[in-house]
Amino acid sequence: MGTTRYIMSMGELSRKDHSLCYRKNDKNIYIPIENTKEIYCLNEVSINSKLLDFISAHHIIIHFFNYYGNYSGTFYPREQFNSGRLLIKQVEKHTNQRIEIAQNIVNGIGENLYEILYHYYKHGKKEVKGTIDWIQSEFSNKILQTNDIYSIMSLEGELWQRFYNMFQYILIEEFIFQKRVKRPPDNPINALISFGNTLLYTKTISMIYQTHLDQRISFLHEPSERRFSLSLDISEVFKPVIVFKTIFELINNKKIKVDKHFEKKLNYCILNEEGKRLFIEAFEERLSSTFVHPKLKRKITYQTAIKLDCYKLIKCILEDQAFIPFSLKRGM
Q1: What separation in angstroms does the CA of 256 have from each of 8, 46, 233, 253, 281?
Q2: 13, 87, 138, 257: least buried by Cβ within 10 Å?
Q3: Alpha-carbon dihedral angle through residues 111, 117, 123, 129, given to the nearest 10 degrees
């Protein structure tokens, strides 16, 4: 898959011979170009066009974030995989079968949230049973009855809200959570969700880049000129599996703490540098953890599972197979 490099502090990134050089506090840190596939700039990093030309030639993606941890954008090298035929078919599929694919994505989110909550139910958190039952019965029936994108997204919103309402039974007391607030996040749990979701979104951008899919043509989310909306589609079903399992384990194992790992200002809350480092380590560990894929009969990582969902979508577009996104229960 290649290596992901994270730059946490302010500095300058440039080309030095056949390597990348990151300069901070008058010291040079060399990053080998071999095997580097993506770079996350999680602070203010200076770059120049010479660097961009160099990394473009090596098909490296750079994701940029501002000081507050908000995603600024991605430097996306010239497409290495182009397919006019797939592009035409992807547009046709959006026009003709958008509802069905969007339904399957939201149903996939529901299935994976069910598995996460059922884990806690089995371990004594009986308060989550009402939400588990709702997902299994009412939600499963409602998603099949939707016939427009607004209804599908409305039901998705209700699904996530019911999941958030269960946090009071899942998380330790100091991580009090009233409601989901995104811009800016206003408390530690919102800061973790925003940071985790953004990491997953950008990771998915990198996975889609390795396929012939067009990032701009999505099915659940509205195609947008301002963002890669297909990455939002593909990443949705992986949020319970990757982002929220990472968050719950960090909090409940007391690895991340309110008083040590966050910066709290008047109307926002963000992870500090040590907090980001801890989260990224756990996030990457989760992405690289393996499970046995029932069809391939071998172990794969969750990061590979994201790419396999891209290939499933390609099969849906070209061969008219139903797009059934990743299921934690089925392992595929």
Answers
A1: 18, 30, 29, 8, 12
A2: 138
A3: -100
**What is this structure's pTM?**
0.90
Q: Is the peptide bond before 184 cis (omega within 30 degrees of 0)?
A: yes
Q: How far apart are CA 89 and CA 292, in angstroms?
A: 32
Residue 249 has pLDDT above 70, yes or no: yes
* Contact call for residues 271 and 196 (beta carbons, < 8 A): no
How much is the pLDDT for 190? 86
Domain residue spans in the chain? 3-75, 84-319
Least reliable range by pLDDT among 97-101, 122-126, 243-247? 122-126
In this model, does residue 82 exceed pLDDT 80?
Answer: no
* CATH code linked to domain 3-75: 3.100.10.20
Task: Please report, to the nearest 10 degrees, the dihedral formed by the alpha carbons of residues 103, 244, 192, 7 taken in order.
Answer: -100
Predicted confidence (pLDDT) per residue in 36-53, tens digit? 889 999 988 888 888 889
C-alpha dihedral, 74 to 207 to 112 to 315, nearest 10° = 130
Q: Which residue has the tokens 């480092």?
A: 277
**Residue type, position 131, single letter:** T
Backbone angles phi, psi at 290, to 5 degrees: -115, 160
Counting Cα atoms < 13 Å in the Cβ hemisphere of 211 gives 24
